[in-house]
Amino acid sequence: xxxxxxxxxxxxxxxARRDESVVDNYHGVDVPDPYRWLENxxxxxxxxxxxxxxxxxxxxxxxxxxxxxxxxxxxxxxDHPRYEAPFRRGDKYFYFHNTGLQPQKVLYVQDSxxxxxxxxLDPNVLSEDGTVSxxxxxxxxxxxxxAYGLSFSGSDWVTIKVMRVDDKTVESxxxxxxxxxxxxxxxxxxxxxxxxxxxxxxxxxxxxxTETSSNLNHELYYHLIGSNQSEDxxxxxxxxxxxxxxxxxxxxxxxxxxxxxxxxxxxxxxIYYCDMSTLPNGLEGHRGQKDLLPFVKLIDNFDACYNAxxxxxxxxxxxxxxxxxxxxxxRVDLKEPSTWTDVLQEAEKDVLESAVxxxxxxxxxxxxxxxxxVLQLRDLQTGSLLHHLPIDIGTVYAxxxxxxxxxxxxxxxxxxTPVIIYxxxxxxxxxxxxxxxxxxxxxxxxxxxxxNQVFFHSKDGTQIPMFIVSRKNILLDGSHPxxxxxxxxxxxxxxxxxxxxxxxxxxxxxxxxxxxxxxGGGEYGEEWHKAGCFAKKQNVFDDFxxxxxxxxxxxxxxxxxxxxxxxxxxxxxxxxxxxxRPDLFGCALAHVxxxxxxxxxxxxxxxxxxSDFGCSDKEEEFHWLVKYSPLHNVRRPWEKSPDQSCQYxxxxxxxxxxxxxxxxxxxxxxxxTLQYVLCTSLEKSPQTNPIIGRIECKAGHGAGMPTxxxxxxAADRYSFMAKMVGASWID
Length: 731
Fold this sequence. Notes:
Blueprint: E1 23-26, E2 29-32, H1 44-61, H2 67-78, E3 82-83, E4 87-89, E5 92-98, E6 106-110, E7 118-121, E8 132-139, E9 145-152, E10 158-164, E11 170-178, E12 184-185, E13 191-196, E14 219-224, E15 233-236, E16 245-250, E17 256-262, E18 270-275, E19 296-299, E20 306-312, E21 315-320, E22 328-333, E23 336-344, E24 351-358, E25 362-369, E26 372-379, E27 385-389, E28 395-400, E29 407-414, E30 417-425, E31 432-439, E32 449-457, E33 463-471, E34 482-485, H3 500-508, E35 512-516, H4 526-530, H5 538-553, E36 562-567, H6 569-580, E37 587-591, H7 610-613, H8 619-628, H9 637-640, E38 651-656, H10 665-680, E39 691-696, H11 707-724
Parallel strand pairs: 34-35, 34-36, 36-37, 37-38, 38-39
Antiparallel strand pairs: 1-2, 3-5, 4-5, 5-6, 6-7, 8-9, 9-10, 10-11, 12-13, 13-14, 14-15, 16-17, 17-18, 18-19, 20-21, 21-22, 22-23, 24-25, 25-26, 26-27, 28-29, 29-30, 30-31, 32-33, 33-35
Helix pairs in contact: 2-11
């Protein structure tokens, strides 16, 4: 089925060399990989391929007549002040703020909540184009120092620097090769724990963010302020298990450092602890020593997830999914490590997502109930319910409080609420919730829109929830453009959020926007997650296809007007769905997708994803993966369909040159394969719908992208969608 608005002129696709000699044998099955050469980002041939694709995509985007209107409108709506919840350290408050069109958010400091706010750190002055962003910034306990990570061009690599808060002097401390790291200060403010990988050996590639080599041998260090990185204290490493990653957290009382060990992206971890008060010469005494820190093993297997919530000396409270797929709170005394007791039992239906200690012996707990957040105040010791904290239907993004604080800040948003930061005073008999800051988007009137949650049945009968956002009082006559978004993996819950670009879609294209909460995510706990993993990954695609069929059958839209979108694991979702049901969609937008399911584990941090996908090195798992791997399942639909004009929907694959999470080779190889099989290998192919790639420079997996780049990318992809589904601009 062609799109309503096919390209006026058939596209001339670049011819990409096919190397038919590259064939891998997986457990007796030969699998060709003719575009293996696209895996080398430094090869001139690859750069030439990318440039030709950029040129082709530009030529298509120039024909999208709503592109400049989108860019202008999205940029205009971005131009409003945005704030995040404040946090307290020492006698100061800190918060992030963007005045509107600043490329990156800025960190401010003030002496009191109504005191004068000063800029503490503005990453926008660190680069001319706004591509340097902040990651993992942490203030010391006494508010004397700020340790902050700088990411360049969207890469996951971080360079850690230190600033004095009082006079904003940047110290000489510079820590390189940190990645997937937390920063946790000891309470004496002498230094902090962080994690890093070994520096590249001589001759290895040094253009951080564009390399594809595996991230192995993570190590945990302690850095003393004012010293050289070469003097950092190696606290932990495990060369027998090079795929392990480590993070450290100093407890609220400053006495213990907890070490979390992860093997993969699965929500399971080990927990070791070190009582720093027992170190004879403190952490400094370990300088120059070969011994690792004397960690004690509390949990030494990967049987469940354990997150420390609070401790009273040796008595620790943990949030866990141990024998509780929807999570619960448990308690253990380090003196009796084999005895664990339940503090707050697992709920029957709702998922316990977080618990934040506050006001001495209270905790604010956040549940996910049918993909909507619910807040409660409970007793830390007994788990008993004290009060419900009233919030609207939506998402709690942050609860900013510490145990010694009697005030908590709660950051809330929804599809129609940009952000509200509540100030919750717990020092009174009844919790007092008031609006501290409310983000207002100019020209946005929420009363013009409506949000519905529906439940539909997937292929196997499982009931799946979906949010539908539309203008009020629309007719269900199948006439509306529609955007369907999904993720479905890694225990990630896709809850409601406010999006400028989606509001522009709804308002100026009359589009309906939907999120399908498919299996593989965490919306209903660990069982929901596992129902979309390994051999059951097909459930994820079935759920998403069923969501699309529901939207058509209920009269919201029709296949020619339905665009599907997803990123990362959601990019894989889009790739698999256009292969399996090309007739069902009028457009597809796949961001930074995992497209080569047989080789993903060989690049950067890909080995950590085998916890969801499995691995082609194992015979049984190879057979699951090869069945749905987007790269290996591109077929000509007109050869199987009685409808000879059946073709793939117009498709845009989006990637970025510094994506070192899902490296660009996934999208490049899939793009070359789609163009070859569907468009360039036949003289009279019915494939008139465009298959293009949008390749961003100086950007990564999405985090830290400057505001204007975000607006430009949204304008490109949604103007492409508008042209392909035949939607016209409404003023």
